[in-house]
Amino acid sequence: MNIHEYQAKAILRKFGVPVPDGHVCYNGASAREWAKRLGEGPWVVKAQIHAGGRGKGGGVKLAKSASEVQLIARDMLGMTLRTHQTGPEGKVVHRVLVENGCNIARELYVSLVVDRNSSKVAVMASTEGGMDIEEVAAKTPEKIFTETIDPLVGLTQFQGRKIAFSLGLEGKQVGKAVKMLEALYTTFIACDCAMLEVNPLVVTAEGELLALDAKFGFDDNALFRHLQIGDMRDFDEEDPNEIEASQHDLSYISLTGNIGCLVNGAGLAMATMDIIKHYGGDPANFLDVGGGATIERVTEAFKIILSDRNVEGILVNIFGGIMKCDVIATGVIQAARQVALKVPLVVRLEGTNVEKGKELLAQSGLDIVAADGMADAAQKIVMAVSAKGGRA
To answer: Where in this chain does the record put each ATP-grasp domain (predicted)?
Structure first.
């Protein structure tokens, strides 16, 4: 789960990380009044969407008067902001953050991520703040410093100083950086984060350190321990089908293709998408109904796939272990009848109660193509979609 910048800064502030004073606003008049309350300008007005690169797209602007804050906020709210992360469709701005400006002397980069290779948290730091870290890694990888943290010890002051020195900090700034890094690590662990990025971390002309922008990524499996963080979820920023899927405990991700996939198990889902691509098709989604799905959950999964107008065919690929093939078959039949299925449907079943499942499909009276094996299933759905004039 992702959250907005203003929410991220509220969390950081709670754990003692210095951030600029600011407030989220939903209309121009409110933005003007909050600017006055924050003190003398200048102020920064920042569009709040779940994407980076907002400044390049016109989503971050400086205002020198409260009236200018109002005008900028009014123009920004409701606009479709397009960045390299939103894609050409962009995202509609529903709220803005108004915060105090600061005198920036340097821009740095700091992030904490889960390092899968070491199974530890790693701190990444760079003097190239304000830039995409991927671009820095590609062009000047030597400018990225990485420090791995022992989970039994935590971030030590020695490591904090190493990171501070790598950023070119000196004097009192080193101590301030160590304190901030310790607070960031505490935040990361306490909130079950998957990623915590501060970009840029700025050094002001007065020598202070501020987290000028922040981005969180949380471990969805741990959100049950953080109800307040879960309440920060912004459904306006998410795909409606993905939201609907989450209501039924389904793992669903929209893609750009035209062949819908209904699979049990994330590994099988990935393999199914790969083999569809191998035979010239293009997956429209990733949908995992899980190992213990009910008939009702399978039915809802089918409906979600068909709600995507780009879907021109569906491949059901089930390996029944805990999940029984006859349950999947019954769910597919119910869903196909409820939605009046009009696109090709290929079903491959294997495992527990497979013969009973195939029998149910055969007796359903529906136009369902049976497949033997993944390769056969992928070829049949790609051929069926192509025969109807869809994209191969």
So the answer is: 9-229
Tens of pLDDT, residue by residue over 65-106, are 999 999 999 999 999 998 888 878 889 999 999 999 999 999
pTM over 0.90: no
- Distance CA(60)–CA(124), nearest Å, equals 25
**Would residue 26 show up in a list of annotated catalytic residues for this protein?**
no
Concatenating the DSSP letter of every residue in 116-131 gives TTTTEEEEEEES-TTS
206 is in an annotated binding site: no
pLDDT of amino acid 73? 97
Q: What is the pLDDT of residue 239?
A: 67
Report yes or no on 205 lying in a domain.
yes
Which residues have C-beta within 8 Å of that of residue 312, sequence separation ≥ 6? 258, 259, 343, 344, 385, 388, 390, 391
Q: Assess whether 72 and 43 both reside in one domain.
A: yes
What are the beta bridge partners of residue 283? 259
Q: Give the domain extent around 312.
A: 239-387
| Residues 345 and 252 both lie in one domain | yes
154: left (phi over 0), alpha (psi -120 to 50) or beta: left
Catalytic residue among 5, 6, 68, 109: 109
Q: DSSP assignment, residue 238? A: S
Judge whether 39 is annotated as a binding position: no
182 in active site: no
What's the pLDDT tens digit per position in 121-130?
999 999 998 8
Same domain, 1 and 146: yes
User: Which of 197, 252, 300, 312 does the annotation list as catalytic?
Assistant: 197
Count: domains in the chain:
3
Ligand-binding annotation for 273, yes or no, is no
- Would you say 102 is a known binding-site residue? yes
Please state the length of the chain: 392
Please tell me whether residues 184 and 312 are part of one structural domain.
Answer: no
